[in-house]
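User: two proteins, same treatment. go.

Assistant:
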Amino acid sequence: MSKQVAGIAASKGIAIARPYLLNTPDLSYEEKEITETDVELERFDQAIEKSKTDLESIQKKVKNTDEAKIFDAHLLLLEDPELISAITLKISEEKLSAEAAVDEVMQSYISMFESMDDEYLKERAADIKDITQRIMSHLLNKLLPDLSLIKEEVIIVAKDLTPSETAQLDVRYVKGFITDIGGRTSHSAIMARTMGIPAIVGTSNASEIIRQDDMIILDGSRGEVLLNPESSVLEDYQTKLRNELSRKELLKQYVNASTQTKDNVKVNLFANIGSPLDLEAVVNNGAEGIGLYRTEFLYMESKQAPTEDEQYEAYKKVLETMGDRPVTVRTLDIGGDKELPYLTLPDEMNPFLGLRAVRYTLKETALFRIQLRALLRASIYGNLKIMFPMISTFEEFYAAKQLLLEEKTNLRNEGIQVSDAIEIGIMVETPSVIMMADQFAKEVDFFSIGTNDLVQYTFACDRMNENVSYLYQAHHPAIFKMIEQVIEAAHREGKQVSVCGELASDATAQMVLVGMGIDSLSVSASSILESRAFINERSKADLEKIAVMVKACREEKEVVEQLNKYID
């Protein structure tokens, strides 16, 4: 019987190969008393310069790819005056060694991100850990592994993979990877999906169990690793792998195809992005537009609020790249689990029910106006749609829209061109908007349903709280009924509805949503082709029957059980 290791299914697919055990050097250091601060400052400066040289070298190896662009942000961090100043002050005034100063300052940044409940934001700490590890390696004179030198088929096994390590992976040889830590939103997991290789993360102990001479089967769909399988099991998986590779080739035909059911009902298939760095995968996978541009990452990646010009350049890049295809930009969605050190957010008993998203930007109108101006200036470069997050009342929508119209007038008075074709919509995340959807549909140009928060607010449960996690039921019939109510209200007014939460990329949910008449689904770029094939291989008439069946259910488990019967 083969031995099994279980983890989180981070990227679908099967890989069969020997392991490459990634061993990162021990970067611990001894505390020491410093007398010559000039020496420590010089050591720190040299470590920074060597780290820059490393990153520039890696960037050249992976040029013209999304991975190469990751290091622009890393290099900017190494040149950040606030960060450099904080470390040099630790050395010169507190008499810390270069190692201790780097460790202390960088850990404060890492802790800030790791304390966030939002899994995507929490995992951005990996970028800072990566840079910290590189600086420390030079201070301690210990070489980091170079994964670009791998020239045989392997499966990487590691405690974790940093962004720079992941970027060096050559998919001709690296068939997948397994890590002890991480989640589905960790950088390594996202990169695996982007590169199209299977991955399992969060195994806790794979790097301790797997040996160099083991034969590994990595099942990224099931989150399972089989070690030294019996011949019959190996043959079975080899057949599955051949079928999978054939499937991947088949999916390529959908890159430039339209998304429509077998009975010719069109569904727009859009992509979610967090920055312009995501665009290459969006274009390569044939997305029909951007359904959700999370602008908060512009703010998260900066030590201070991004300027109007900085935001303008980012929005312009996305709009120009997408051409005539629609780009839906969500205005700043901060608060709740997303905090920024340079913004003043109050301490609240329950921040998810507090000053967040549009509630915050309507209070901090100067900050909001800067973003709105940047968006309006960029609007002439593409098909821009702007939506406001966390709307609960008409007053909020009217107030946000008024600020937008005021800045539009201001820009034109300044002689700056602004598009006349900008649609203005809202995120549907609160039950109050669901109940008033018929009236909101008369005022907005479109709806975008954020199912992650909608589920949370419908069941009155913090989606990050393990004690009530059983209540976070995205497939509950109540959620589908609410979505249908919005679709029907919008269609009566000739408006369109999109779903951009996690539910949009779930195959079982897609059947229900398309059956209910959803206009658009917005998913990760890596999910575009699978989703398109899935929808194109089914008829709207059949999916309508499935949607009716779901609405007759009483519990989520009943819905899931029924829907799974229709998945091949």
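Protein 2:
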Amino acid sequence: MLDAQRGNSNGGGVGAYLLHRAKPHIPPWLTVGGIGLAGGGSHLLWADSAAAGVGLTLSSIALTALTWWAGKSTSVQRRLHSAITVAAGSSWFTTAALAGPFTGPIPHLYLMGGTTFALSWNVRVLLRTPDSVGESGGDKGLLEKVGLARAQLGAAKVEPNRVTVPVTLAAGEQTNDDVTKALPNIASAADVSRTAVRYQPDPDSERRGNLVIVPEDMLKHVVDWEGPSTPGGSIADPLVIGRYDDGSPMYMWLPGDPKKKRNSTHILIAGGTGSGKGDAALDLQTEILSRRDVILWFSDPKMFQDFRPLLPAYDWAAEGGASTEAMVEALKAAVPARTRWLGQHGYRQWLPEAFEVQNNPAHSCRNDGTACGCPGMPFLVAWMEEAANTLRYMGDDAFTGIAQEARSAGISLVISLQRPSYDQMSTSTRASLPSVIALGCAPDDEGFSLPDEVLDAGAHPGVWRNRRPGYCYVVSPGIPEDRYASPGRTWHFPERVVPMMEVLADWAVRNGASPDPVTAKAAESVVGKAYTDRKADEQLPDEEDDDMSEGSLVDPEDVDIDEEVDLPDAQEGDDEPIFGEDTGRKPGPEESRRLFEEALQEFERNGQMIVGPKDFREWWERNNLSRPWVSARLVEAYRDGRLQETGKTGRWRIVPSLTPADA
């Protein structure tokens, strides 16, 4: 506005400069001169007319009243200044037209009064600042419309596509909650979307804060992923997963930083079907896998449908069910082992230095003050995709212990699901996930994803539902709190970037971190081959073998049967009814232990280290045994130390055998 008043200077030299600077001050003087000429000319027409006197007097009153009425949307000072100026000017004009411009004191009043009023408007222009602009005109009218008439607006901070205005509310009459409630009306008055307006209260005041308005939604345009932001960097560097609605990058951090007072974090990714949760996961995973000092354990009951190009880069990939159950048990064992190692080497939390070989005496596990030379420990990210499936399988508190204890062990837990309601995830687990990427959801589900204070500040993921894929709010340590209610959008992963993802996975295999001995030993000690043979399942054949050999009519499982050998003799229990709980034969104690040990070893060979009665169904049917018999053997194996409890009723963890399985 000020630039418009001052005009533009296209000339050069001192004269042009002075003319340019004088432009805003000329209009009041032109007005005074015009009134003087009009008053003298009108006297020639109406000097002896009584009717003209009445008309001019009424016109003067009407013009003053109109000025007062028209100025109601401006500040009080401008309204009074305008009305007084019009009243004085119209009064002099009426007197000069009737009595003459040079009669008595009329010319003196003209010179003194006209000069005074012209100068007063010049002074007003000189004193006009962005602060006064913010408090006047339409801003004040807008506040009146939304019920905040007594609030005061400070100097606006204008950035590219972002305006931040300090707000001071009336003491004792208004609170920050009043602004929060008025945000939809402010958005309506500003003619922007509901998510383009937010309010950040001052934590030290109940009547001060910052009103933020983003005029243009820059997120409407989809931006494709162009590769990781810091390939070969550290996991301690920021992870760039998209951009905010003002165009600035959207960051996250996983490890803590004691120098910046930032804590390590776990992440919840929440969003309804079609909200872009897959792209958000790919954004975060490609950033993680491009760093040199981190390993990723990944569980996906959807069989890596969206993540297949990255599969070789995962240190451990589980397809849900029993394999994920083993991964969770391995994590539980890794937490204390990693915490102990970090403590022994002088780390209160994981730092990038922990990844390097420990050649610094300050981080030595020895007592003689010399460097220990121990292998370093990479950061560990444990990712549970489609976690609702795992929570149904393992119970709503499956991740509670890990979420509460893993941060100090250099482990970040990522849980991704559609609806993080308390009937799916325990309140203890949810409370231990300080970071969230909240994508579009049903309006009633907003409270499950975001803290109340972020919703009060103007965040509304329920507005998007699944109509704005990738739109999200990010709440996480390291992000300024005034950004929590700012919407962002993740990068999009079209089909054309799949080759780039495969290149990244290949880089991670060749250059990424390997598991440290402490983590590997802890995992192997509790789940055995489920961890040591974890890569075997990823070696997918180029093509599937036929179930039967070409030209053969014999099932592969029957190929080794000798047709000449007689069937085995009848055994005890073969004549029992086939219905009922007690079906099946009943072998003696020694045979029972041998058979059950063979079953446990078979599970170990297959990498399944968490078992329960239902996992033995095929085995007991194959050996003509019964479920009660299996349940009794499970209890015996627990007493013998071959099985351990998992914290879930009916599920047991196999203690790895110290001797090789029988041939």
